[in-house]
Structure formats: structure tokens, C-alpha cells
């Protein structure tokens, strides 16, 4: 029995549980205001892929992008919403930290933990664009119904990348959903 308690305590001590990156500022029947703070939890490191130097953003979560898009983290939050509602996202305030001369690698086709990663499959339309990617830092995915509850996922981009100027922008977002 003491081995079970020791294992439980060890798991608690070595768990990578960081404080939440968001808090609810206001919640009313017709809207919710949430403050997302991405100032902690991400690290930008230099990495060499096929002889080229890239800056990779290390995160604690799972990254999901289309192959060839800039490999930027994405933060998702699920919300329960009333049936028949069609929520909208409004960004009330954004604070940014800009980094210059950063080359973000493209998202790989196969997991680089288990497969060789070359970094050659870039989405040329995005990497030649003079706009930030993703173009909007907050958007809702389509909703799903799970056991009599309507759930919608809010996708947030803690970083945006401008490939032509190689500018990387880190965000702190305050948004309102109606």
C-alpha cells in the first residue's frame, strides 16, 4: 500500500501542471469575457534541420497544423453553449511581444520524434505571404453535441508569424464571446 502512495506522490511532484493561462473576467447570460495570458509556458529555441537554422517554439501541449504551415502552437478551450446559439468572438484587447529575424519551420507530415524531419515541405503561399499567419488569433470551430450538451471549441493562436519579414508575435488576448 505504501508503494501506491509513493507512486501517487511522485506523480504529483513531477507533473508538469502549470497555472491556467486564462481566467474569466466576466460571465453574463449573453456574453463571457476571458483573459488569455500566454506570457509563460512557451520557449523559443534554435534548432538545425537539414543544415538550416530554424526557431522552434517548445510547448507543453499538442500542436495541430496542416502540413507545410508554420509550426506554431495552438491553444484550444471547449465551452458548453446553449442549443440554438451561434457564438461570435470579439477581441477586446491584445498585448503583443514582437521578435525579429525568426524562421519558423513548417509543420511536418510525420511526427519528427519517430521519423526524420527535413523541413522542406513548406506551404509556399503562406511562406511567401506578407501577412501574419494565422490571420486571426481567435476563432470558433464547429460545434458538436455530446450527451445532450452542445460543445464548441475556441482555437487561439498564442503566436502569429509573418514569414516575409520573419517577425514572430506573441499575444496576450482579452476577448468577448457573445
How does this model look, in words?
The chain is mainly beta. It has one domain: Immunoglobulin-like, CATH 2.60.40. 9% of the residues lie in helices and 42% in strands. The protein has 2 helices and 11 strands. The strands form 3 sheets. Strands 1, 2, 6, 10 and 11 form a 5-stranded antiparallel beta sheet that branches. Strands 5, 7, 8 and 9 form a 4-stranded antiparallel beta sheet that branches. The radius of gyration is 19 Å and the shape is globular. Mean pLDDT is 80; it is low at 1-18.
Short recap of the structure:
With 178 residues, the chain is mostly beta strands.
Taken together, the total number of domains comes to 1
**H/E series:** HEEEEEEHEEEEE
Largest sheet: 5 strands, antiparallel
Approximate strand percentage? 35-45%
Structural class: mainly beta
The average pLDDT score comes to: 80
CATH architect. name: Sandwich
Radius of gyration: 19 Å
Terminal CA distance: 51 Å
